[in-house]
Amino acid sequence: MSGAALPITGILLAAGRGRRFDPQGLRNKLLQPLPGGDPVVVASARLLLAACERVVAVVPPADGGVAEALRGLGCEVTICPDADAGMGLSLAHAVAYSLHSDHPAPQGWLVALGDMPFVEPSTLRLLAAAVEQGAGIAAPLFEGRRGNPVAFGAVHRDALLALGGDQGARRLLTSHPVTAIEVQDPGILRDIDAPADLPT
Predict the structure, then answer these.
(1) Label partner for 107 (CA 20 to 30 A): which of 23, 82, 124, 159?
(2) Residue 143: CB atoms within 10 Å
(3) Is there a domain that residue 89 lies in?
(4) CB atoms within 10 A of CB 199
(5) How many domains, the chain?
(6) Are 160 and 84 in contact (CB under 8 A)?
(7) Radius of gyration over every alpha carbon of the chain, rounded to an integer in angstroms
(8) Is residue 2 a part of any domain in this protein?
(9) What is the pLDDT along the chain (200 residues), one digit of tens a residue?
């Protein structure tokens, strides 16, 4: 890898409403405490910040305190006005934000989910390194199952900017070559989807 290579920017998707966690909308799953004391989204952000020098977090307009918690960690927070339209739109919004700032254009993006605080830091570093070394898309595999986060090279910039709806970047993963990174990390498959998913 050339010494002039530009860094990978982390993107933390934290704009979902978590309606499956609480259909009443009273409890934001991203703010639920984990056994160590950190809220779910803070633990997820710490992992990404350990792997990427710059992390852009995307949140909805009324986030209940998520943005404040993430700014306190050092994330750049951007509000997606249309977050309810789906993850794809939130991801496109975050990528656009990362390009229209004072930072150099990223070499790629490591896209992590705010409700996945159990991923191993080494997995994040492997994914970022794969894109830095030329992979267009890098995704982790655990026991034959693909999980998250996923890293994208700058070659997919325009496609990421054009995303919309609930599918996120899934279409890109099915229509372009993906470098599979084998990991011994069940955390790539583990999210907080329901109250029972919170460790005790």
Answers:
(1) 82
(2) 9
(3) yes
(4) 10
(5) 1
(6) no
(7) 16
(8) no
(9) 333 334 899 999 998 766 677 666 667 899 999 998 999 999 999 999 999 999 999 999 988 889 999 999 999 999 999 888 888 899 999 999 999 867 788 899 999 999 999 999 999 999 999 999 999 999 999 999 999 999 999 999 999 998 876 666 778 888 889 999 999 999 999 999 888 898 87
Q: 3-state class of 90 per DSSP?
A: helix
User: In angstroms, how far is the first alpha carbon of the chain from the final one?
Assistant: 43
The CATH number linked to 87 is 3.90.550.10
* Cβ neighbours of residue 38 closer than 8 Å, sequence gap 6 or more: 46, 117
75 lies in which domain range?
8-197
